[in-house]
Design goal:
With 114 residues, the chain is mainly alpha-helical. The chain has three helices and no strands.
Length: 114
Amino acid sequence: MRARDRAAVSALRTTLAALDNAEAVPMDDAGPYAAALEDTPVGVGSTEAVRHALSERGVVEIVRAEAGERLAAAARLTAPAHAERAARLRAEAAVLLRFLDGPGTAGDTAAQRP
C-alpha cells in the first residue's frame, strides 16, 4: 500500500464498507423513536445495538461477491473507451481474490498438508 496502489485501496475500502454494512443491524418497523420523553433510553451506550458477527465463511462470501461484481462490471465494459476502467476493475478483483487465496484464509490448504 505504500506505493499508493489505487486499485488495492479502492477495492479494500469498498469491501470493508460492504462488510460493515453486512454487520449492521436492520432498523425495525417501529422506528427508533419513543412514544414519550420519559420512555427514551438514558445512559452511555443505551441506544447502541449489538452488531451481527460475521463468520469466516460469511466474510469470504462477501469478499468473493465484491470481486465477482467487479469482474462482471469489467466484462460489460467492452468499448475501447472503457478499457482503462475495465482494467482497473479487474485489478481490484485480483486484489480481493489474492486475499482469499493467500495464507491464513479459508481457502488455504497449506495448513492441511503434512
